[in-house]
What we know:
Blueprint: H1 2-24, H2 30-51, H3 53-56, H4 59-83, H5 89-96, H6 99-109, H7 117-134, H8 144-168, H9 173-195, H10 204-232, H11 234-239, H12 244-256, H13 262-282
Amino acid sequence: MWFYVVVALFSAVWSSAFVVGKIALADLDPFTMLSLRFVLSCLLLLPFVLVRPTTAFDQRTIVLGTALGLLNNAVYLGLTFTALTTIRPELVVVVVSCAPFMTTMLVAALGMERLSRRKLAGITIGFFGVVVISGVATTGAPDPLGVALAVAGTAAFATGTVLFRGKAAALPVLPLNFWQSAVGGLALLPVALMVGGPWEPPSVPATLAIVYLAVVVTIGGMALWLVLIRTSGAATASSYHLLNPFFGVLLSCALLGTAFQPADVLGAAIIALGLGLTVRSRS
């Protein structure tokens, strides 16, 4: 029972990043917002890292944390937020929801996990539920460049998931998250300086949004994500992202006042069916 509570909590936290991020983007460009988010989370994690300097500053932890920071924070979020400037958010959600397919194929190709028919069927059914919720199938052709950016970002995230599963699963979570945040912020800062701005003091809502993103999503959400990869495996843990559109709809209704549609209920039921098959395959 508690396992499913953790999965739901993770998905709700991860989904909230897009809703809360929209509040911050009212005052800041994506790269400045992401840089501030990761620098703040890095500073907040620093005291916990200094308590165990031997582990935190181990060469393996630094190298793998750097790689994960580039893949998960800089490339994945940088490209998907850039894609949001040219294509609709619903389509970005659908593309990002392809991460379970990419992850499953990667771990199977590398011989890290077995690819069962039940697991693949569950992910496929869940992805169909994502399409139903997003309504993307009822709209016109998207911008090819935006789709390509979203696909590239999703591929980077899937690669980061497999890298953690194969190389870093035994390492402590907080030091890895510290290096991820530090590298993500440093990598995006030059981009923010080149293409971001103009810079003005953010409003109170935007400031609170950045604090929430740093504390709840980057520190809390990423910790939950890494723990789920350890307990479920890369492919199954990645399938939990199929819940994100549903929680995104709920949070959008609660915080942004968007309307709740009948297709949301249907899509959520389809996703639940797909996840049921995937988790049962894991068991």
